Amino acid sequence: MTGTARSPVQREISRILAVFWKDITIEWRARANFNAVAFLAGLILLLFGFALGPDPEALRSAAAGVIWLTVLFSGVLSFNRSYEQELENGALDTLLLYPGDRRSLFVGKLLANLAFVLAVEAVMIPAAAILYDLPLLRAAPALALIVMLGTLGFVTLGTFYAAMASRVRAREVLLPLLLFPMLIPILLGAVEATAAALGGNVMGGMGGWVRLLVVFDVIFMTVSFLAFEHVIGE
Amino acid sequence: MGIVTSAPVVYLTGVALAAVGLVLVRRQAGVRTWGIITILFFVFAQAAAVLTSPPDRDMGDLQKILYVHVPTAWMSLLGFAIIFVASLLYLWRRNERYDRIALATAEAGVVFTALSLLQGMIWGKPTWGVAWTWDARLTSQAINLVMYVGYLSLRAFTDEEERRARWSAAVGILGFLNANIVYMSVRWWRTLHQVQSTPETMSPEYVVGLRLNAFAFLYLLLWFVAHRYYTGRMEREAEAQVEERALAGGPAHV
Predict the structure, then answer these.
(1) Domain boundaries, chain A
(2) Which of B150, B154, B169 sits opposite A181 (nearest CB)?
(3) Tens place of pLDDT for every residue, chain A, 234 residues?
(4) Which one of B181, B183, B186, B187 makes the best mutation probe of the A interface by having the most chain A beta carbons within 10 Å?
(5) pLDDT at B199
(6) What's B60's DSSP letter?
(7) E-strand spans in A33-98?
(8) C-alpha to C-alpha distance for B107 and B79, rounded to whole angstroms
(9) C-alpha to C-alpha distance for A140 and A152, rounded to whole angstroms
C-alpha cells in the first residue's frame, strides 16, 4: 500500500481487487469445489434429459430453459460458501474493521462469484450443446452476451442475499427461497433471449430481452449496492 | 341505494372513515372499536354489492366473487407498498416501530395473497375451465406469495432483533421493486407468446360494489395490521420483562 498519493476511488478499487483476488486464490487452491459444482451442473443437464425424454426436437426446444435452471441450481451453492469461509475464525469481522467503504467487500465478492459461475458455465454450456445438440458455434457471440448479462444479475442478487442467508439457521433453504423469486425477471429474460439466439432469431425477440436484461442488471446492482451497507454490518 | 351509487359519495365517505380508523388505531384501546366498525362496514359493503349487482351475462352469479377477490388482491399489493415505505423509514430513522409495522403488514399480506390465489382458482375453474393459467396477474401473485413467505422466513430465522429489522428492511425494499418488475416482465412474456388478455370492461352497476368493498378490505387490512402491531409490542414488552427479571437474579421465565 503506497497510501497517501492515491485518490479514494483508487483505494476502493484496490480494496475490491484485494477481496476478489483473495476469494479467487482460495477457490483456486481448493479446486475440488469447482470440480464438484461443475460436475453437478453436468449431472443436472443429464437429469433434465431423462426427465424430458430422448426426443431430440423436444430437448432442443427446452434447452434454453434447462441451461438457465442448471445455472441457478448449481450457482446457488457457491454464494453461501463465499461468506461461510469468512465466518470461520471471525474473518468477516476483521474484514469489516478495515478502513474504507464496506461496499467494496460486496463488489469484490460479486466479482469473485461472477468469475466462479462464469467458469462453471464455460464448462456446462458446451456440455449442454453436445447433450442437447445445439448450434453453439453459430450462436456463440449472442450467447456470450446473454450469458454475461444473465449471470451478472444472478450473481449480484446471489451475493447480496447470501450476505444475510449465510449467517442464519436453515441457510440451505433460506437462500433459494429468498433468491429465486427475485431472479424471475432475469430468468425470463435470459431464457427467452437464449432461446431466440439458439433458434437463430437474432433480430427478432432477442434484442428486446437483452435490453430488458440490461435494465434488470442496472436496477438490481444499484439497489443491492445501496442496501449492502445495512446488511453486512453488525 | 341511489345515494351510495354516486362515486364521489363513496370515495369521500370511504376516505373519511379510513381517517377515523387511522386515528382510532393510534391507541391500542381503539383497535377493538375499529374492528367492530370494520365488520359492520364489511357486512354492509358485501350485502350492498351482492344485492345491487345483476347476474353477469356470461358468468351469472359467479361474478359476485369479484367483490371479494379483487379487493383481496389489491390489499395484498398494498401490503408490499406499506412494507416498502416502512422499510425505508426504518433504515432512515432506525425506529423499531416501523419494523413492527412491516412485520404486521407482511403477516396480513401473506393471508391476503394466499386468499386471492385461492379465490382466483375458484373463479378460474368454471370460467376458464382450468384452475391455473400463466396469466400475468395470477403468476406474479404466486411469486408474491413466495416473496412474502421468504420475507417472513428470514425474520423467523434471524434471532438478533436489530439485525432482523435491518435485514428484513433490505429484503422488503427489494421485494417491492421486484413485485413490480415481475409483473411487467411476466406480462411481456405472455404478450410475446400471443395469448389474449381479458379486458377489464365493467359496467357501472358492478363498479359501485367494487368501490365499497375496496374500502371494506382496506379497513380490514388496517384492523389486522394494527392488531398485530400491538401484539408485537406486547411480545417485546414481555421479553424485556423476562430479561430484566433474569438480570435481577429471578426466575428466567414468566
Answers:
(1) 3-232
(2) B150
(3) 455 578 888 888 999 999 999 999 998 988 888 999 999 999 999 999 999 988 988 899 899 999 999 999 999 988 988 888 888 878 888 888 888 888 999 999 999 999 999 999 999 999 999 999 999 888 899 999 999 999 999 999 999 999 999 988 888 899 999 999 999 999 999 999 999 999 876 556 788 889 999 999 999 999 999 999 999 876
(4) B181
(5) 42
(6) B
(7) none
(8) 9
(9) 18
| ipTM of predicted complex | 0.89
Q: Is A177 close to B178, i.e. CB distance below 8 A?
A: no
d(CA B152, CA B192): 34
**Which of A164, A182, A192 lies at the smallest CB-CB distance from B189?**
A192
Angle between helix B161-192 and B66-93 (nearest 10): 130
Cell numbers linked to B189: 412474456
Instruction: Kindly state the cell numbers that stand for B185.
Output: 416482465
- B-facing residues of A in 194-223 (CB < 8 A) are 205, 212, 216, 219-220, 223
Round to whole Å and give the CA distance between A131 and A59.
Answer: 9
Residue of B167, B171, B185 lying closest to A188 (CB–CB): B185
The alpha carbon of residue B17 is apart from the nearest alpha carbon of chain A, in Å, by 36
* Residue of A169, A173, A184, A201 to mutate, testing the B interface (most B Cβ within 10 Å of its Cβ): A184
Query: In this structure, which amino acid lies at residue A116?
Result: F
Using CB atoms within 10 Å of the CB of residue B65, give its burial: 0 to 12 exposed, 13 to 18 middle, 19+ buried: middle
Give the 3-state DSSP-derived string for A1-18, with helices as H, strands as E and coil as C.
Answer: CCHHHCCHHHHHHHHHHH
B27's grid cell: 391507541
- Which residues does chain B have within 8 Å of residue A159's beta carbon, measured at their own beta carbons? none
Q: Is A168 exposed, middle or buried (0-12, 13-18, 19+ CB in 10 A)?
A: buried
Backbone angles phi, psi at A168, to 5 degrees: -125, 170
- Give the gap in angstroms from C-alpha B110 to the nearest C-alpha of chain A: 15
Write the single-letter amino acid at B165.
A
* Least Cα separation, residue A63 to chain B (angstroms): 18
**Sequence ranges of the domains in chain B:** 1-52+200-248, 65-198
Which residues touch A9 (CB under 8 Å, ≥6 apart)? Answer: none
Contact call for residues B79 and B112 (beta carbons, < 8 A): yes
A227–chain B nearest CA distance, Å: 6
Q: Residue B194: what pLDDT?
A: 46
Whole-angstrom Cα distance, residue A117 to residue A125?
12
A178 contacts on B by Cβ (under 8 Å):
150, 153-154, 171
